[in-house]
Every structure is written in structure tokens, then in C-alpha cells.
Design goal:
Length: 232
Amino acid sequence: MNDAATSASTSDGAAPPRTPGRFITFEGGEGAGKSSRVAELAERLRRRGYEVVVTREPGGSVGAEAVRHVLLGGAAEAFGPLAEALLFAAARADHVDQTIRPALARGAWVICDRFYDSTRVYQGATGDVSADRVALLEEIAVDDVRPDLTVLLDVPVEEGLRRAAARRGDAVADRFEIEDATVHERRRRAFLALARAEPRRFVVVDAATDPATVADAVWYGVCTRLGLAEKD
């Protein structure tokens, strides 16, 4: 994903189909492969003639990208999980207003690498911010902008951390990657619990298999849930 974190395009000048905008989010632990699967899904949709906006959290707008550096760099950690949740909410509100809502309004498909489920898990389930507070911040930040579909890429913690380390190379691990494996396992279980609680919104994909198989499973889930023909 590039530094601007957002992109939009259509396929070779083809007019996008006249359909309402759709909002798809990807969730999962470290090393689940969200960025790659997001890019693959976006390309498949563009080949169908849809305008696709690819974005991420934290980030996705000028204001939110500034907050991203504070959050992932660890500068907010000393203030505690509630302060982090507040910063995520502020970034999310700007992201929704500046990027997501306008794209949906013009009929684009928006694909986001993380959204409010990550706050529910990272600051809520494993950060001890109460569910009531998380829900309140969520309501303020997103209002009626809710995902049509959430793809949860599930991968065992050990494998996810191995992938994250390989991807990172010599770069410094971010604020969340460096935490203990037991914390990552709690997050994995929390994501799966969210999927069980909202089965109509979530598609859970086994992300431990080879990338092509995962990409096809994602595509099948999107087509099945959102009414697209699986094959051209």
C-alpha cells in the first residue's frame, strides 16, 4: 500500500456499473496478509468495471495519516489504551468524512485495511477499554457508515508473527507488533468472537494456506455475500 494510503481507478475507461457503493473491511492479526488480499480484491473488482477506493487504518486521509505516525510509533502508548482509542476515533472520523463517505456516495466500492473491529479488539478486548466506551467512540466516529462485509483473515499467531518479521526485515516493529505472543493470541480469539457474534457481516477465511487459495476464498466470500457472479 502506498504512502498516500488511498487510490481509486476504473478498468480501462469502462463505465462503472450503476450500483450503490459498497464498503468492505479486512481484519486480522499481524501477518495475516491483509494488504496483499486487499490489493488483489481491488484489482478483481476493477476488472469488472467498478471504481474502487483502497484505504487503511489508522490513516486514509491527510489528518488520519498524521495520527497514524503517533499511534504506530508508540508515542501514545504511555497515555494508556483509552487515549489510544480516542486518537483512533479522531483519525477514523476524519477518514470517514474525507475519504469513505464521499466515495460511497458516488457509488465506489471502498476496501479498507482495518476499521472499527480493530479498535474493538486492540483497545477493547485486549486493552481493557470498556465495551460501552468503545461503542460510544465508534458511534461518534462513523455514525451510519458501517461495513457491508468484513473479511477476517485468520492465521495462527506463530505463523502471523513469522510473516510480519519477514515482511519487516530490518525495519523497526511497530507499537502493536512487538507485544507478547499471548496478547496476539487473545486478539485472534477476540476477532473470531466478533465473527461469531455477527455472522451476517463477517466472512472468516483461513489465511494460513497459500496466497492464491486465500485470494480465491476471499473472492468467493465477496461474490456470495454481495451478489456478484463469481466468474466473468
